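Pasting as-is:
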Amino acid sequence: AVQLGSFSIGQNALVLRDRLREQGYAAFVQTVVAESGSITRVYVGPELFKEQAESVRERLVAETSLEAMVVRYPGG
């Protein structure tokens, strides 16, 4: 999967997720609770192969000007 951001305000993550979905991406969020509070991360994917995820990452960086990284699918 491609991670596009981590937000301490969950609503900001949902706005980005919805914007990505409008652009045709399979975007989703996942919230984790840490000692410092909850963090909501925005992802696109998952892709079956890392090379495909890298291609999606490059396209997202070009289209959104956000930093992105390929990560293991957080769903398992």
